[in-house]
Write a structure and sequence with these properties.
Elements: E1 2-7, H1 8-21, E2 23-32, E3 38-45, E4 70-79, E5 82-86, E6 94-99, H2 101-114, H3 122-129, E7 131-136, E8 160-164, E9 168-173, H4 176-182, H5 192-207, H6 218-224, H7 229-237, H8 243-247, E10 254-260, E11 266-273, H9 294-313, H10 323-327, H11 334-345
Parallel strand pairs: 2-6, 6-7, 7-8
Antiparallel strand pairs: 1-9, 2-3, 4-5, 4-11, 8-9, 10-11
Bound molecules: iron/sulfur cluster (SF4) (2 copies).
One iron/sulfur cluster binds near residues 239 and 243.
Length: about 350
């Protein structure tokens, strides 16, 4: 990896160059909450001013730009005995600016499923390959536990990664296209003072975490506590709304339906993201439901995050952003559930 120093005044020129050639997605303030704090979402921007890099977190992750909640996989047209299939992949160049390290790590986990596993998704790949990613370091939110998940640091999966050093950015360059782009603005080599300032910021980030979860023996604890009352306690609270999976940067469960027009001349195959907490998640033809109680559905979401994914891909699926904990109206938070499990097992 190469490193450079980018003066803050040059950052604007860099963003404007990216805007010229790409659809740009960035954190944007959309409202304020009851405490008067700004609420941000990753949304398309058309100018530098629309972007707000001082954001704390976004309610939704940027997952939707790679895995839309609903997408047409293909359409069919029938004519007599004949039929035509048409498939469109996303190819318009796109850039996402301001992604946190844990959100880039979330994309790396999705890459394992949709690029490197047995059934790669051309839809996901086309979006991922056509998206230029500019990451940004941040001081963690109080309820974030990405340090516990090892996702507060990211070393690949982006084009540029910026660390704010007050009047300048410490920039990690991770792709040829990022290197070429930086040739068009004024940068300079990293001096010792920059390295010291960078390491100081990294130290503040590391020490800024207030929420920690124990993950080293978590897969075993989950196995030991499979029938624990902890699942009843939290499962009873669950409203089956599915919001946790909707906001999660790594939840990717989906269903596929085929919609046929009344005249049988056209059909569309539609993929829609789903949540394992929804009441009909495991209902199959004939009406049998493999997870009819909400306790089981909640439990299996946790098993996929911290147990099943680890077995398949060698790491947990959760990146510790706590978006699910913040959005849950029933107050179900991973840190609290996992703490209960450990206490139960002791
Ligand atoms: S957001 Fe909370 S209440 Fe809704 S499905 Fe998830 S755990 Fe249950
Ligand atoms: S904290 Fe919640 S929303 Fe964030 S990655 Fe983990 S399970 Fe998903």
């Amino acid at each position: 990896m190469l490193f450079k120093i980018l003066p803050k005044e040059e950052f604007r020129a860099l963003v404007e160059m990216i805007l010229e050639a790409n659809e740009v997605i960035a954190p944007k303030a959309i409202a304020t909450n009851a405490r008067g704090e700004r609420i941000h979402q990753f949304l398309p921007i058309r100018s530098f001013e629309e972007m707000d890099l001082e954001y704390k977190s976004t309610e939704y992750s940027a997952k939707t730009y790679f895995l839309p909640y609903r997408e047409n996989l293909c359409t069919f047209e029938f004519e007599g005995e004949d039929w035509q299939q048409s498939i469109q992949y996303y190819i318009q160049p796109r850039a996402i600016i301001g992604l946190r390290a844990h959100d880039i790590n979330a994309l790396l986990k999705l890459d394992k499923v949709f690029i490197r596993d047995r059934f790669p998704s051309p839809y996901y790949i086309s979006r991922r390959k056509n998206t230029f990613i500019v990451g940004l370091d941040h001081i963690p939110e109080e309820d974030e536990f990405s340090r516990s998940m090892g996702t507060h640091i990211v070393t690949h999966g982006f084009d540029l990664f910026l660390t704010d050093l007050s009047d300048r950015y410490f920039v990690a360059i991770n792709s040829d296209r990022a290197f070429s782009l930086l040739q068009k603005v004024k940068t300079r080599d990293v001096a010792d003072a920059d390295t010291h300032a960078y390491l100081e910021v990294r130290r503040r980030i590391r020490d800024g975490f207030k929420t920690h979860i124990e993950v080293h023996s978590l897969p075993n604890v989950l196995d030991l506590e499979f029938t624990s009352k902890v699942w009843t306690k939290w499962g009873e609270k669950c409203l089956n709304c599915g919001s946790c999976a909707a906001v999660c940067p790594t939840c990717y469960c989906y269903g596929v339906t085929e919609e046929v027009t009344m005249d049988f001349k056209k059909a569309t195959k539609v993929k829609q993201l789903y949540s394992c907490n929804l009441v009909d998640f495991a209902r199959v033809a004939g009406g049998h439901d493999f997870r009819s109680d909400k306790e089981a559905r909640l439990k299996y979401r946790y098993y996929h995050q911290y147990r099943g994914f680890l077995e398949d891909y060698g790491e947990p699926k959760c990146v510790g952003c706590n978006r699910c904990g913040r959005v849950c109206l029933a107050g179900i938070k991973p840190a609290a559930v996992i703490k209960d499990l450990y206490e139960e097992s002791v």
